[in-house]
Known about the structure:
Blueprint: E1 7-12, H1 20-29, E2 37-42, H2 67-78, E3 81-85, H3 95-107, H4 115-119, E4 123-130, H5 139-151, E5 155-163, H6 174-183
Parallel strand pairs: 1-2, 1-3, 3-4, 4-5
Helix pairs in contact: 1-6
Amino acid sequence: xxxxxxxxxxxxxxxxxxxxxxxxxxxxxxxxxxxxxxxxxxxxxxxxxxxxxxxxxxxxxxxxxxxxxxxxxxxxxxxxxxxxxxxxxxxxxxxxxxxxxxxxxxxxxxxxxxxxxxxxxxxxxxxxxxxxxxxxxxxxxxxxxxxxxxxxxxxxxxxxxxxxxxxxxxxxxxxxxxxxxxxxx
Length: 185
């Protein structure tokens, strides 16, 4: 059964404000129905400390999140559809997107968060730009996100892939901009 989300969380994970990936994500979001709530968070503005894996230390329980981590956890749990907008960096998600995903491991063990149960049934999608005409270079990025979604029982919403090497290049990728019109439909 298709999932009809009405609350979208767009996580901007690029290293540049207004970069090609963000532009492509905003083009896709512009086509959402008026009733669809949109939250946009830029991971550059919500820095996370390096992730500490304490699963096997003491009781393995993670503390209640504070600061940027709490903002991200609350927004993640509030959304029906998560869109990770990450350029392809060294064949994977950006460092900030990877760090955000690492925190999911801790959120699974935060008392009262019920992270895994509350993520089940949500949709996870990707928006990315690559600097190669070979779209298979994005396979590791897509695999990271698709498998993360599967682990949590989420729906995989697919990926919107565009070409963008230099700032503004995405404006010349007519195919990606056309696909953006229906990507989140």
